[in-house]
Design a protein that fits this description.
The chain is an alpha+beta fold and about 325 residues long. The chain contains 12 helices and 11 strands. It is globular, with a radius of gyration of 21 Å.
């Protein structure tokens, strides 16, 4: 069975990326972002310099340095600033033909070069992402040194360098390139976070744990199989009780919760197909009882399968 949990996840959900602004500032500077829409994840890439990011919702403050990449999977409103406490001057924005904005100021202090954009998640998969990824996710692109040249952090460094070059001018195809690179940025950031020694909580912590990874890979690779806790525990070489305890500690939810959420996300994709019946969808995602499927779908998605099908058709 394939252990590539991330590919299975990204085949199930649709994510696109878009670069929106490149900020070239001298201190003092300050930029605020409002809370994002449900299907959007803001991202920032520090190309050069340093920045302080504040999340008022979680009351967290973190310093970012060159090479740091931050994702906000819950779409939290946040503020970035230089940390000096001085009142910033005005910024000057110019629209680039590639589709993104260049923002600059007249500050004479420490310089910052920052890429800002967002990822768009096809509904209803934003619920899955926000349920299982941390509020703030920070990884660092590492280039060279003692790092494994094939590591995700080194790949990120190469990707960020390419994004920097593409955003430096208005070359033909730059908009398409930056959109495609933004999508790759999402995948590599999740890979790097799961590979780090201190993977954040949630899905990445489970996927990055060698003892638990077989269970999450199996559920994503074959979600319609009637998995039981003993089955999953056996894959991980643990007793049922030990598996349940470790999985709950890392994910914050049970393996059964995750399996249901994966199945409902697959069901949402299947319901978009006009020729497949609800009964067939229920069977396709592992339910023998269509009434049980309808009940679980409504509980997880906040609407019946029929309502979701109608909404998907209207928005197509």
């Amino acid at each position: 069975m394939s252990q590539d949990w991330l590919s299975h996840l990204l085949r199930m959900i649709s994510i696109t990326g878009q670069l929106e602004v490149r900020c070239v500032y001298g201190a003092p500077w300050r930029v605020a972002w409002p809370r994002s829409a449900a299907n959007e994840i803001p991202y920032h890439v520090v190309l050069k310099g340093r920045a302080i990011i504040e999340d008022p919702e979680t009351r967290t403050i973190r310093e970012l340095a060159g090479g740091d990449i931050v994702l906000l999977p819950h779409g939290s409103g946040h503020v970035l600033h230089d940390g000096s406490g001085h009142t910033p001057g005005p910024t000057y924005n110019s629209q680039r033909s590639a589709g993104w904005m260049l923002s600059a100021n007249d500050g004479q202090g420490d310089r910052l070069d920052l890429l800002c954009g967002r990822f768009f998640i096809g509904p209803p998969h934003d619920r899955l992402i926000r349920s299982y990824l941390p509020t703030n996710l920070v990884v660092r692109a590492m280039d060279g040194g003692d790092e494994d040249v094939g590591s995700a952090s080194n790949h990120l460094a190469n990707l960020v360098a390419l994004m920097r070059m593409e955003s430096a001018g208005d070359k033909p195809g730059s908009n398409a390139m930056l959109s495609a690179l933004s999508s790759v940025l999402f995948t590599l950031t999740l890979r790097a976070a799961s590979e780090s020694e201190q993977a954040p909580e949630g899905l990445l912590a489970v996927a990055g744990n060698p003892r638990l990874a077989p269970a999450i890979s199996a559920m994503l690779a074959d979600p319609t199989r009637p998995w039981t806790l003993p089955d999953l525990a056996h894959l991980c070489g643990m007793s049922r009780a030990t598996f349940m305890r470790h999985f709950q500690e890392k994910l914050g939810r049970s393996a059964a919760d995750l399996l249901v959420d994966i199945r409902m996300s697959l069901a949402a994709n299947e319901l978009k197909k006009p020729t497949i019946s609800t009964e067939a969808v229920a069977e396709a995602v592992g339910y023998q009882s269509v009434s049980a499927f309808r009940r679980v779908f409504a509980d997880k998605m906040g609407m019946t399968p029929g309502e979701w099908r109608r909404r998907a058709r209207e928005s197509a």
